[in-house]
Amino acid sequence: MEDDNGLDGDLNANVRCQRTGDPKLDKAVQHWLAWDRNQWTRAQVESLVGAGRVDDLRRRLCSRMSFGTAGLRAPMGAGFSRINDLTVIQSTQGLYSYLCRYFADFSSRGVVVGFDTRGQEESGCSSHRWQTHTLSRDVPVHLFSSFIPTPYVPYAVKKLGAAAGVMITASHNPKEDNGYKVYWCNGAQITSPHDKEILRCIEEQLEPWSASCWDVGLVDRCSLRTDPLTQINSCYMDELASLCFHR
């Protein structure tokens, strides 16, 4: 059974009782509280509702990050317009859905995933944490076991023949920001029409697929996960050295 906002009628009372007076915003708040399992970002939204900070809530919940040629980039924190556990999970679901449709051999090629050292304590958000939210039980993931420089991901995509790559970083942006960069099978950042199609796939399935999406222990139990760090570091440095000329 569903309530008047299209949400399951068995949502707990804490989710149902949150009201701002704006029907569209109320629906966004209810979706957030129904889906978000990160205690820090969930608490941020609950605090804003309790304080009646409607404008802040609208900025965070009534718009989404745009998915362009560089993927996603935004401040860390609660809200659909920011980067956090939930929006990373949603982005991964959309990306995997599109790759499944585009590559007949996606289940064997898999993806490459890397991350940097960014994090925000008050949101419980970090690049390292989000590596878990890029895993799947059904698709091989070449997941670097330690933080790496961004070029390692597109290099590994081509070297390993992966369908795509994800680098969790915001490069030179302010420390409050983070990002979800996507690389195509040729090692280049995604371009049109892939970016628009991935965004469409994200918006088609915003609700997390299952509780396992939030399982931070999955990274240690995923049988399809491999660590390319040693191989890629060695190959990258060898090829880089071959391009250098010394007197």
Query: Would you state the CATH class of the largest domain?
Result: Alpha Beta
* SSE topology string: HHHHEHHEEEHEHEEHHEH
What is the count of DSSP helices, taking H or I runs of 4+ residues?
11
Kindly report the name of the CATH homologous superfamily of the largest domain. Alpha-D-Glucose-1,6-Bisphosphate, subunit A, domain 3
Largest pleated sheet:
6 strands, mixed
Count of DSSP strands = 8
Helix content percent band: 40-55%
Kindly provide the radius of gyration, computed on alpha-carbon positions and rounded to a whole number of angstroms. 19 Å
What would you call the shape? Answer: globular
Helix/strand-derived class?
Answer: alpha/beta
The largest sheet has its strands arranged as 1-7-6-2-5-8
The total number of structural domains is: 2
Euclidean distance between termini CA atoms: 75 Å
The CATH architecture of the largest domain: 3-Layer(aba) Sandwich
Task: Report the β-strand fraction as a percent range.
Answer: 5-15%
* Poorly predicted tracts of residues: 1-17
CATH topology of the largest domain: the name is Alpha-D-Glucose-1,6-Bisphosphate, Chain A, domain 3
On the 0-100 scale, what is the average pLDDT?
Answer: 88
